[in-house]
Amino acid sequence: MSLQILFDALSLGGIYAIAALGIALIFGVMKLVNFAHGQFIACSVFALILPSADAVAVLGLGALPAGLLIPAILLFGAGLAVLAEAFVFRPLRNASPVALMVASFALGILLQNLLLVTYGGRPKAISLWPELGQPVRLLSAEIPLLQLFVIGAVGVILAGLALMLKRTRIGLEMRAAAEDFGMARLLGVRANRVISGAFALSGALAAVVALVLVAQTGVADVRMGGQIMLVAFIATVMGGMGSLPGAVAAGLALGAVSALLQAFLPPEARPFRDAFLYGLVILVLLFRPQGLFASASAKPRV
Amino acid sequence: MSKLGVHDLSVRYGKLTALSDVSFTVAEGERLFISGPNGAGKSSLLGAISGAVRAAHGRVEMDGDILSGHSPEGIARRGLSMVPEGRRIFRALSVQENLMVGTGLRRDRAAVADDLATVYAAFPILHDRRHANAGALSGGQQQMLAISRALMTNPKLMLVDEPSLGLAPKVVDEVYDRLVALQAQRGLTLVIVEQSSARAARVGGRMLLMRGGRVVADGDAASFAAHDLLSEAYFGDPA
Amino acid sequence: MSPQPTTPHQIRRRMAATTPVLLALLLLAFVLAATLLGDRATARMAAETLIRVTLVVGFWIFAGNSGVISFGHAAFACLGAYTSAWLTLQPAMKTLLLPGLPGFLAQAHWPVLPAALAAGLLAAALALISGAAILRLSGIAASIATFAFLAMVNTIWANWTPVTGGTSSVVGLARYVSPWVALGWAVAAILAAALHAASASGLALRASREDEVAAAASGIDRYRHRLLAYTVSAFFCGVGGALMGHFIGVINPDSFYLSLTFLMLAMLVMGGIGSLSGAVVGVLAVSLAVEALVRLEKGVTLGTTTFALPPGSQEILIALAMILVLVFRPAGLLAGREIMLPARWVTGRGTSNQ
């Protein structure tokens, strides 16, 4: 039982952390709170299937073997985000964070309705990697195979990202830009390259979330990115706006709280789990407006 | 040909004119001090040269190439480097990472390694603390880091904004000693904003005096020393 | 007769006082034109537009004065709509649809006007409580928290079936909202917004929007002024929500979620968040454009062929327009200006010495 909760917390928290990183990366370099991130996730989900209004989805990209499918969908997410940056956010490069945020909200609505027009509004059944649904016995608990994969993948992604930020040129430039973009530019760091890079990473992370959501739920729904984006936002605020380690820590913490609420709330209160989660977060922020995990170097700059 | 040419440069913030029709040139290898009271337009001038601040009109040339209209990174890539007001080091990055941020524009890895060695030789404290978070350095050390970081881009021209700000006089002496030594060693052209004309006279070089967004005097820094009492009355404390 | 205003300051105040009057006249002209010249559909469109004026002007009272974008105001409309439903529906209907309502609400059968007032007051109370927490955050973080608040209210409403009916709709609301009723509330919202904006608190709030540091240095307690604006703002959004319910006659939680948030935001941004006139003009402009699009979605017959836009294209086009406005005219159509009479009219001299 308790081992089960631990795995639930880790896999849910891991996904929240990945989504929160997608938000925090972009906020870090350009102070944009990207309300379109949920739609990056939804678009990546729908990229798996062929356009139609039928109730059962016909796999398009999703029919590829995993070895091709995963890179293809990550590339799709990255490409979508880079295009969004080039066409919507680049012209707004000098706009206020509020204008950027409002524009991203409009972009999210735009993408959502493009999906509606192309695929219809009904959720679609979609079967991606059904063999991952099998449970595995682990000590005293039955863990779905998918959960193990998710936890493993999150670990690999976090390690890879940390390595990239720490060891590569673009990683160094992103960290410098996140702290003081103007200064980084004075040292020859190319703004476009860093921002495009951050969007590409963020989009690829959105695609990861999309794959996990589809494998977990077995449906494609135009609204499916919204809830997780909101949790990711909250994680970003709690983590201290733009701090990447903070976002990861807060994402994991929110996953743990969710899993605990799910396990220990009385059954009639469970549908309200997310409401409790959001309410709890507002309370936490009340006592620590700078975020739970904000350090001196990552204090909010808004 | 002069290293740096500034022609009729003006900067406005809304209705406020921070810099109006400033013109001057700097020769290769020269050391130019820019002095004047707060609000004289010194930082706006450096900002407009480096591309961080958009000029209302006028133009900036380096080696005869027009810099105006290029992005800050484009200007940095042409060989101009900036040590900004308040130093603006990347506090969450390590000392060595700070130094490496500006080397992205360079292709010659061996030369980068050489420069790193040079900088560490000039500022041994930075070498000792190269893995520490830059935010943990003292003010003087941060100033040395900011100067070294600018040097790592291998500039031909370096702009330094108030290197003495907030530092103890002894530390300022040290910073200037190193700066002058590095200039000689590397054949740099230096433009330094220095509020204290006495300090500028002691270090030596040419000096522009600014007030109200204009250049009001241009001459040898030492010749301003004669007017020291007067300028101190105008411009505040000597360092 | 009032004395002639002499100082520029007095003249400006007089000019500012003409803004709500002119806006009210503009809306009056709009309703007259729609009811006298148009068909029933046009009159309905006019009523709907004026309900949106109430909502967006309410929204502006907070967002326009504080400069903080709230994504949570649709939640106040939601609470307002359900409050009015709880208070006005036939008790027999409520035992059927909403068996979980507490006794006094289950028995209540209020007239519509007190119910609308109660809707506004309850929304204001919710704003006071939630705002006390949310508005302690800095600008962007506060925006995110309002979004969390919206999602929280939506989750509760969609799942608290015995009281809210859950995701299924509550039906049978008295459809009393004519263009004239909507006009009344829209004008009330405009007057309140103008009064608030001219009050000491409104001025202080705008000062803190322009320059946070200077405002704090001059002793402005930004948090208190924000909270006041948030509360007043929520009152009109609550009323607007009640009007929406009684306009369509059917409510469900998703009519007060992202689409409404987006529409309110789009109207405010396109009109220009910097002025009250911008909020009103934004509603009119977007509503007229939406009306044209709705007719296009139904199909336009030209000769023998029918052109129809696919559903959803309305939002796509509004979103595109909104992004274009943000890029090319970031201050909106009115760019922060108010509609007001020129100085020489308010001084009553016929000619201006200014």
UniProtKB/TrEMBL annotation, chain A:
GO BP term (any one): amino acid transport
Compartment(s) of residence: Cell membrane
Family of this protein: Belongs to the binding-protein-dependent transport system permease family. LivHM subfamily.
GO cellular component, one term: plasma membrane
UniProt-listed InterPro entries: ABC_transp_permease, BCAA_transport_permease
Positions of transmembrane segments: 12-33, 40-62, 68-89, 98-119, 145-165, 194-216, 228-254, 275-296
Membrane topology annotation: Multi-pass membrane protein
Range of residues in the leader sequence: none
Species in which this protein is naturally found: Gemmobacter aquatilis
CDD domains: TM_PBP1_LivH_like (cd06582)
GO molecular function, one term: transmembrane transporter activity
Protein name, per record: Amino acid/amide ABC transporter membrane protein 1, HAAT family
Keyword terms, alphabetized: Amino-acid transport, Cell membrane, Membrane, Transmembrane, Transmembrane helix, Transport
Pfam (any one): BPD_transp_2
First-listed, main subcellular location of the protein, grouped into a coarse class: membrane
Automatic annotation (TrEMBL), chain B:
One GO MF term: ATP binding
Name of the protein: Amino acid/amide ABC transporter ATP-binding protein 2, HAAT family
Segments forming domain ABC transporter: 4-237
Family: Belongs to the ABC transporter superfamily.
Organism: Gemmobacter aquatilis
PROSITE patterns the record matches: ABC_TRANSPORTER_1 (PS00211), ABC_TRANSPORTER_2 (PS50893)
Domain of life of the native organism: Bacteria
Biological processes annotated in GO: L-amino acid transport
Alphabetical list of InterPro entries matching this protein: AAA+_ATPase, ABC_transporter-like_ATP-bd, ABC_transporter-like_CS, BCAA_Transport_ATP-bd_LivF, P-loop_NTPase
Keywords: Amino-acid transport, ATP-binding, Nucleotide-binding, Transport
Automatic annotation (TrEMBL), chain C:
UniProt cross-references to InterPro entries, sorted A to Z: ABC_transp_permease (IPR001851), LivM-like (IPR043428)
Keyword line: Cell membrane, Membrane, Transmembrane, Transmembrane helix
GO MF annotations in UniProt: branched-chain amino acid transmembrane transporter activity
Regions annotated as coiled coil: none
Chain ranges passing through the membrane: 43-63, 109-128, 140-160, 180-206, 227-249
Membrane topology (UniProt): Multi-pass membrane protein
UniProt signal peptide: none
Protein's cellular compartments: Cell membrane
Pfam families per record: BPD_transp_2 (PF02653)
Gene Ontology cellular-component terms listed: plasma membrane
The protein's name: Amino acid/amide ABC transporter membrane protein 2, HAAT family
